[in-house]
Design brief:
The protein is mainly β. It is about 0% helix and about 50% strand. It is built from no helices and 10 strands. The strands form 2 sheets. Strands 2, 4, 5, 8, 9 and 10 form a 6-stranded mixed β-sheet that branches. A hairpin with a 4-residue loop joins strand 6 and strand 7. The protein is globular.
Length: about 120
Amino acid sequence: VQLVESGGGLVQPGGSLRLSCAASGFTFNNVYMSWHRQTPGKEREFVASISPDGGNTPYGNSMKGRAIISRDNAKNTVYLQMNSLTSEDTAIYYCMAMLRGPNAWGQGTQVTVAS
């Protein structure tokens, strides 16, 4: 099982970023996927998740209304579109696969919001 996030970087306040997470090693279109984020000294925080068919997309409070999670099952990839970013969104963003055994995590991608 492998999850590889990409798309992070430096963005100005008010800007947007689209994160990607490429998955392999499991049947992607059968698995819930989710995005989480973490800053130093804080617990990892839930951002959003998406059902296998993409029809159910609950969001955490931190980015509700500013983020859109989506997936492309043909590409084994889940995305997180983030808009109206603020410095509070600076964090490492991780994707997670909700497998039957232990969940699988990617290595994370750094998002820094600064002018």
